[in-house]
Each structure stands twice: as C-alpha cells, then as structure tokens.
Amino acid sequence: MFVHGCFWHRHAGCGDTTIPKTRTRWWLKKFKGNVSRDRVAQSLLRKLGWSVIVVWECETNTAGRMKMLRVELAQRLRQH
Questions:
Q1: SS3 3
Q2: What is the domain count for the chain?
Q3: What single string gives the DSSP state of each residue in 31-65?
Q4: How far is CA 34 from CA 23, 54, 57, 58, 75, in A?
Q5: Which of 8, 13, 6, 10 shows the shortest CA–CA distance to 61?
Q6: Most exposed: 14, 38, 49, 73, by fewest CB within 10 Å?
Q7: Containing domain of residue 17, as a range?
Q8: Do residues 6 and 58 make contact, with C-beta atoms less than 8 angstroms apart?
Q9: What CATH number is attached to the domain comprising 61?
Q10: Is the alpha carbon torsion for 58, 61, 62, 66 positive or negative?
Q11: What is the pLDDT of residues 55-76, one digit of tens each?
Q12: Three-state DSSP class for 2?
C-alpha cells in the first residue's frame, strides 16, 4: 500500500495539488518525475504479483474512507 501526499504525487482534482508560484518549471519537472516513478514502481510490483493500493493523503482524514480501506485489505488478505 502506498500513502501518497497529494501535493508531491499530484492527486488529480485535489485542492492540495497546487503549483508553487516560484521556480514553476523546476516544480513541474519534479512532479512529472514523481508521477513517473510511481507508475514504474506500481507496474513492477504488479508484475511480481503484488496488489497495489494507493491511498491519497486527503482521504486519510475521512472515517468512511478508512473503514472502506480496512474492508478492502481484509478481503485481499482472505484471497491470499
């Protein structure tokens, strides 16, 4: 399971996914690299037979999302 910070890993549609006003070009390159590394890492793990779950930072503040995550994890553990 990955818990991604919305700012660093670019959670689409999230209000925390802002772009700093200074050094914008540098930041965009940094964010693009982060997202690319995330995709590669998740792809490699799936090829090795792992299940990948991404939880976004903004979702950790909601009790409903955390309950859904517990249920999903329990289901996956039963499958293996």
A1: strand
A2: 1
A3: HHHHHHHHHHHHHHHHHTT----EEEGGGGG-HHH
A4: 17, 14, 15, 18, 30
A5: 6
A6: 49
A7: 2-79
A8: yes
A9: 3.40.960.10
A10: positive
A11: 889 888 777 777 888 888 888 8
A12: strand
Confidence of residue 43 (pLDDT cuts 50, 70, 90): very high
Chain length of the chain: 80
Instruction: Give the separation between CA 21 and CA 10, rounded to whole angstroms.
Output: 16
In the numeric block, the tokens 């399971």 are attached to 1
Residue 55 dihedral angles phi and psi, to the nearest 5°: -110, 130
Give yes or no for a contact between 14 and 6, defined as CB atoms under 8 angstroms apart. Answer: yes
- CB-CB neighbours of 56 under 10 Å: 18
Q: Around Cβ 9, how many Cβ atoms within 10 Å?
A: 19
Token pair in block for residue 22: 């200074």
